Automatic annotation (TrEMBL):
Its cofactor is [4Fe-4S] cluster; Mg(2+). One of its GO terms (molecular function) is 4 iron, 4 sulfur cluster binding. CDD domains: GPATase_N, PRTases_typeI. One of its GO terms (biological process) is purine nucleobase biosynthetic process. [4Fe-4S] cluster binds at residues 283, 429, 486, 489. Residues 16-264 form the Glutamine amidotransferase type-2 domain. It comes from Lottia gigantea (Giant owl limpet). This is Amidophosphoribosyltransferase.
């Protein structure tokens, strides 16, 4: 049996969070925009912990104010920064780097000067044809100052579209021209003078939704309110960030849609279609693991979608046991529902230290070999002598699962049956998620047959791809829109043909 105790990395990481806010007229707004943006970013902290930035403007003279820094939101934005960032609108970004190192230079939002004034951009995703776009831009005489793919998008926007601009800058046409050449994935916020544009790539690979801040005493519904009832519009990678600022989820931005937000309200400026009538490819792992459970995507709460995955897992892979438990956090809704479906008691067996982050400095070898014991403590009384079903949302390298089972067995578990609420991850992702190389993925290293032995488990079963897609799509109630999800890391079926 291979020993993974000295490997600490776990999970699929690297996805950014973007957040924007525009106060409605009259300007100057009475709202505290810098705090709204900071709290918005804080609600998206799980999506990016390397660095963060906020850019605001009064929207009047085209000037931007900015604050950027390495680290967590709380460490970067201080009260004195809030005063300096005062404005009527702004965009913000939490970063996990996918292209371009994790350093000051690459912190977003990016700003450039154009012939019409400054523009700023915040990007979540990864451009799959970045190498080709970089080459074309450099060849056309554009100088680039970073290795980031997001800089390519802002540089593309500085170019007037081929149809020309007889009446001055036409940002919708520029955005559409950029969307024609930049291949997924991107959810974007673009700020220019007194307008923020919110954009999702035609496949809708990364999420983006709109919320409304209504007056605190308002009883008006978010769907039926007039524009004059709204204090501000907010845009976010996930609706979970709306709770802390008193905003209500209004709707998702559709795949390929361009939304214009100004002090007058929001306006949809059209939808850029996908090639050959292909279906959308919203990342299914946003549901499985990335997003916070209280987020709403495609009209359903992530927690509820995860519950359905657990229910489907119970249908596909039942097992006789005394208790069902979770690998906290993101697997919990699936575990709870797996237990309910099979009529087994759900019991917590781990206490998780929530303060162990990714930036934890590598300690000495002796301490490092304690592996996940730094992250999880066993609740021994709850499981000693019992047959356990341990549910996790995903297995990537297998480090977490192997170490946890060893811990459970060491403290007296009788049997441990692993049930995974998503299928084996076999392929890399080129769309903004840093999945380990093919060779590091446990599904490519160890056969299903040998996996229980490798993990020290009594049995291991995964949810099927069909089961996962069914569980996710069943809860989507929006009508009239095509539904489709990317499952490329599970199936090898990528939304666009890749050249490498
Ligand atoms: O197979 P591995 O490479 O070890 O990674 C898999 C684990 O990583 C993730 O959890 P994570 O601890 O990142 O966060 P969570 O609290 O959201 O579950 C995921 O939920 C699995 O538990
Ligand atoms: N994870 C992301 O969405 C990253 C955005 C962009 N590719 C960057 O590296 O900055
Ligand atoms: S390959 Fe996997 S992680 Fe990447 S976008 Fe598709 S479903 Fe999401
Ligand atoms: Mg986990």
């Amino acid at each position: 049996m291979a020993d993974c105790d000295n490997q600490e990395e776990s999970g699929m990481k690297h996805y950014c969070g973007i957040f924007g806010a525009v106060a409605v007229e009259p300007w100057p707004t009475q709202l505290d925009l810098p705090h709204i943006l900071t709290l918005g970013l804080l609600g998206l902290q799980h999506r990016g912990q390397e660095s963060a930035g906020i850019i605001t403007t009064t929207g009047e003279e085209g000037q931007f104010k900015q604050k950027k820094g390495m680290g967590l939101v709380e460490q970067i934005f201080r009260n004195e920064d809030m005063i300096k960032l005062n404005g009527n609108m702004g965009i913000a970004h939490n970063r996990y780097s996918t292209m371009g190192g994790s350093e000051l230079l690459n912190i977003q939002p990016f700003v450039v000067n154009t012939i019409h004034g400054k523009i700023a951009i915040a990007h979540n995703g990864e451009i799959v044809n970045a190498a080709e776009l970089r080459h074309q831009l450099l060849k056309s005489g554009v100088g680039l100052s970073t290795d980031s793919d997001s800089e390519l998008l802002i540089q593309l926007l500085t170019h007037p579209p081929s149809c020309g601009e007889p009446d001055g800058a036409n940002w919708i046409n520029r955005i559409k021209a950029m969307m024609k050449v930049a291949m997924l994935s991107y959810s974007l916020l673009i700020m220019y003078k007194d307008v923020v544009y919110a954009v999702r790539d035609p496949f809708g690979n990364r999420p983006l939704c709109i919320g409304k801040i209504l007056p605190p005493s308002s009883f008006i519904s978010v769907d039926n309110c007039n524009e004059k009832d709204v204090d501000a519009y907010v845009v976010s990678s996930e609706s979970c960030s709306f709770h802390a600022i008193g905003a209500k989820y209004y709707r998702d931005i559709l795949p390929g849609e361009i939304i214009e937000i100004s002090k007058k309200g929001i306006k949809s400026c059209g939808i850029v279609s996908r090639p050959n009538g292909k279906l959308p490819a919203f990342c299914i792992f946003e549901y499985v693991y990335f997003a916070r459970a209280d987020t709403v995507f495609e009209s359903q709460m992530v927690y509820t979608a995860r519950q359905r995955c657990g229910e489907q897992l119970a249908i596909e892979a039942p097992v006789e046991a005394d208790i069902v438990s979770t690998v906290p956090e993101s697997a919990t809704p699936s575990a709870v529902e797996y237990a309910r479906k099979l009529g087994l008691p759900y019991t917590e067996i781990f206490s998780k230290n929530r303060y162990i982050g990714r930036t934890f400095i590598q300690p000495t070898t002796r301490l490092r070999q304690l592996g996940v014991a730094k992250k999880f403590g066993p609740l021994t009384d709850n499981f000693a002598g019992k047959r356990i079903v341990l549910v996790d949302d995903s297995i990537v390298r297998g480090n977490t699962m192997q170490a946890l089972i060893k811990l459970l067995k060491k403290y007296g578990a009788k049997e441990v049956h692993v049930r995974v609420a998503s299928p084996p991850i076999k392929y890399p992702c080129y769309m903004g998620i840093n999945i380990p190389t093919k060779e590091e993925l446990i599904a490519n290293r160890i056969s299903l047959q040998d996996l229980p032995d490798h993990l020290c488990a009594d049995s291991v079963k995964y949810l099927t791809i069909e089961g996962l897609v069914k569980a996710i799509q069943e809860g989507i109630t929006t009508t009239g829109q095509p539904i489709g999800h990317c499952t490329a890391c599970l199936s090898g079926d990528y939304p666009v043909k890749l050249d490498w």
